[in-house]
What we know:
three-stranded antiparallel β-sheet, alpha/beta
Amino acid sequence: MCENMSSSLTDCFEAFKRSDEERQEFIKALIEINNKLENDLKIANSDHLDQLNSRRIWQEKAQSYENKLNETTTNGFLLCLIDGDGYLFDDNLISQGATGGGEAASTLLNNIKRHIQRHEGAIHWKIIVRVYANIEGLLKKFAYIGFTEEEEALRQFVAGFTQSQPLFDFVDAGQGKERADHKIKEQLSLFVNNIQCKHLMLGVAHDNGYVPTLDPYKNNSAVASRISLLKPGHLGREFYGLPFEVVQFDSIFRTVELPNERPPYKLQQKLMYPHKPPLQPAVPHPQKARSAADHHFTTRCPIYPGPVLLNKDGERVDEYLGAPSEFAETILKTLISNGNKLCNIHHLLQRCNAGPRCPYSHEPTLEGEELIAFALKARLTPCHASSKCRNRMCVLGHMCPHGANCPRKKTCYFYKVHHVDPRVDHEATDMEGDAPAYY
């Protein structure tokens, strides 16, 4: 820099001064770069720690959700909600009181288990059953129609049903027509989106009033596949066409509704048919023409022969058979249309010996409520022996269906027996032989 000795000291000084300034500027720049790198490193370290913490948090959440998901598999349940005002348990079960209640609960539990065994993981599901009913209303109904022996039995039945299974409850919903409906609708709303509720079985298909409650779910396949309808004696019309699976359990519920009016006499099973076994399920006849929507229960109902029932005056009265459903009556009207007259002796007694010479039809086989409807139709023809008849095979009528209040009065075919007391008092001991009473 000052190699030329001829240069002045001043020039050398200025040169050194510029060199020092350049060095200082360079060092200053290095320091600034270092500071920036250190700051970036701190930020990167901070972000890295945040990522680690965030990852740890999400891992913990993932593990928590996995644990909960595993719990739903092992702690899943099926909820069965039944409207006990419409789904009345079988008379044979109710009449046994607490024992019948326990048997009903056990039978229902076993039927549900068999039904859900095809679902994955169903073996681990708990089964919860809740029956809601206006018990006081049912007791009043029993008293009104003459089921006096059933009143105390029903109370014991309810207790036996609830006590026999830890997750079964028969709940008194209180007095009022819609009390049970309200309970069931709220329970459905509460559990339909519950992830642990794997399946819902609903005993509501007797009442079309439940259809609007189910409408929001019919187009949601994920929810609809988790809902089953428990079939009563017959489905309400508006339930046909809904996408929910229909389930049928035999020998638990009544297949015929209780009458709305007082029957001609008190229905007393021990007096009427002490020797008859409970009704058994029947196999539908392959030749019977049925609607595709026909899902009602079918049971063979051997009405005859039975004991000849008498009132206190020794006059014959007809056994109370209940009221068949409108659907069963429609089927019967269809079968006897176009001049197709059915054989009373064959269908009600299974004893027609005329064979091909019989002028009446033996086909198709009648079942369940259809058979009851046909028996009631046969009784519209008066028996020639009237109230004095003692033939236990007689399928004709011995009393007016309307009794003393018959609006037809003297024009009624049963006018001469309008005075007959319809209340049963005892069985006849002087019954005639086994010959059927023909038309």
